[in-house]
Specification:
The chain has about 500 residues and is mainly α. About 50% of the residues lie in helices and about 10% in strands. About 35% of the residues are buried. The structure holds glutamic acid (GLU).
């Protein structure tokens, strides 16, 4: 996919909400393509839809891209030689090109009224045509124009389509031919003076020297319209690559409207997914190296990424796979980095203060270590280890039913309490030896002691090794929790 020109690609999100998973994947493909080829990756903001574009959304998009590690070389915020990179600030540039096209007679003013357009639409429908505009104002005389102006009509500007097929080459999809019957003189400038997407995109891609346009397959129908504009301007278009769309398991296209937060990158971040898991997940939504390898580091992706290896077929979003990758990447971080990653979640959930002391840090690392590979997301830290940080936890009703209802749990907990109280050194081995001594002496099954005790200390019937828990809680807390459980039982459960 080489053009001989310097490689320059852009990601051009519309700031009308959070960063969509599918858009993040488009950004990633562009970024990887630029990094693989030593090219330039540009971030442009497509905010021509004034009503739906917001500052807040822009900020969220920047944040999500930064979180994913998709840094941009040129563009919004960072600037560059072809700025501004926010379309709403480029009005003058667009007007200049509209004028150029008007002057060269490749564009013209159209004064059609809404009623005329409705009639044309009905006619087109009756004739089974997809295009509607019949070109009636293509060749207005100066007198006709003046007459419409005098009536107070505000014109739009339309581009003239050529009377021949438009051939679009696509690196992923191959060649497609659009016959003249499927093309019409599209509006490039609305009557209120604002330019439209297909026009601004061409102008910006041209002005910003974009060599390759890699974007979502939902834009495939815009390519021919954009090629008409390139042709009118007399400039070479970039190479196009349309990436397959992402669907849910039921065959519905992933959309903000239908799927809400399920398709929001920010939400996955909040839910405790790691950026490296997300990147690895996104890249495999359509791209493959050899159909076997699933885990790729960023460096490996940069080395191996080729647009030609993006498939044509639509892809299905599978959250299970993302979870699997996230688990993998959580465990790939060493203990210290894993601890760093969970701290914000513990803080968010009110379990940890902002600044921890070195002693606390050591304790925290041991807690994280005790969880082993049981976290699917970083947010799981709270459900898995919350009881280490607060006494205010609930006894799981199922655990109560299973372990506090049979045998003599009250007697057992009281017995264990005495054993623990007598312990002078409070280490893993001492705790273990003392408890086994208790089970042997009283001839009770180990599990009949361990599980009621686990429920008393953690509220749950699963989790890290029990002796680890006891040591991490410390003597005082262990005793207090035993007392609490004993009172609970005495109160009559
Ligand atoms: N703003 C468009 C989008 O978000 C960009 C399309 C393009 O890359 O040309 O889909």
């Amino acid at each position: 996919m080489a053009t001989g020109l310097p490689i320059r690609v852009r990601f051009a999100p519309s700031p009308t909400g959070f960063l969509h998973i599918g858009s993040a994947r488009t950004a990633l493909f562009n970024w990887l393509f630029a990094r693989h080829n030593g090219g330039t990756y540009i971030l442009r903001i497509d905010d021509t839809d004034e009503q739906r574009s917001t500052e807040e959304s822009m900020r969220e998009i920047y944040d999500s891209l930064k979180w994913l590690g998709l840094d941009w070389d040129e563009g919004a915020v960072v600037g560059g030689p072809y700025g501004p990179y926010v379309q709403s600030e480029r009005g003058e540039i667009y007007r200049k090109y509209v004028q150029k096209l008007l002057d060269s007679d490749d564009a013209y003013y159209c004064y059609c009224t809404p009623q005329e357009l409705t009639e044309m639409r009905e006619k087109a429908r009756a004739e089974g045509r997809s295009t509607l505009y019949d070109g009636r104002h293509r060749n207005l005389t100066e007198t006709e124009r003046r007459k419409f102006e005098a009536e107070g009509r505000k014109p739009v500007v339309r581009i003239k389509v050529p009377d021949e097929s438009i051939v679009a080459a696509d690196v992923i999809l191959g060649e497609s031919v659009t016959p003249p019957a499927n093309l019409q003189d599209e509006i490039i400038l609305k009557s209120n003076g604002s330019p439209l997407y297909n026009f601004t995109t061409v102008i910006d891609d041209y002005e910003m020297k974009v060599s390759h346009v890699i974007r979502g397959g939902d834009h495939i129908n815009n390519t021919a319209k954009q090629l008409v504009i390139y042709r009118a301007l007399g400039v070479e278009p970039p190479q196009f690559a349309h990436v397959p769309l992402v669907f849910d398991g039921k065959g519905e296209k992933l959309s903000k409207r239908r799927h809400g937060e399920l398709v929001s990158v920010g939400k996955y971040r909040e839910d405790g997914y790691l950026p490296e898991a997300m990147i690895n997940y996104l890249v495999r939504l359509g791209w493959s190296y050899d159909d076997k390898q699933e885990i790729f580091s960023i460096d490996e992706l940069i080395e191996k990424f080729e647009v030609e290896r993006i498939g044509k077929s639509n892809v299905v979003f599978d959250v299970k796979k993302l979870q699997w990758l996230n688990k993998h990447y959580i465990m790939e971080r060493d203990l210290s980095a894993r601890t760093d990653a969970v701290i914000p979640f513990l803080q968010r959930d009110g379990l940890l203060e902002a600044n921890s002391s070195p002693v606390q840090r050591e304790w925290l690392e041991k807690i994280v270590e005790s969880v082993g590979d049981r976290m699917t997301t970083l947010a799981d830290i709270t459900t898995q280890t919350g009881y280490f940080f607060t006494d205010d936890f609930e006894y799981d009703p199922k655990a109560i039913k299973r372990w506090w209802k049979k045998g003599d749990p009250l007697g057992t907990l009281q017995g264990i309490r005495d054993v623990i109280e007598k312990l002078e050194t409070f280490g893993l081995e001492e705790a273990e030896a003392a408890i086994w001594e208790y089970t042997d002496k009283n001839n009770v099954k180990r599990v009949q002691v361990m599980q009621p005790l686990r429920v008393a200390l953690t509220g749950q019937s699963f989790g890290p090794g029990l002796f680890e828990i006891i040591v991490l809680l410390g003597k005082e807390k262990t005793l207090a929790r035993l007392d609490q459980a004993i009172s609970y039982m005495k109160a009559g459960i």
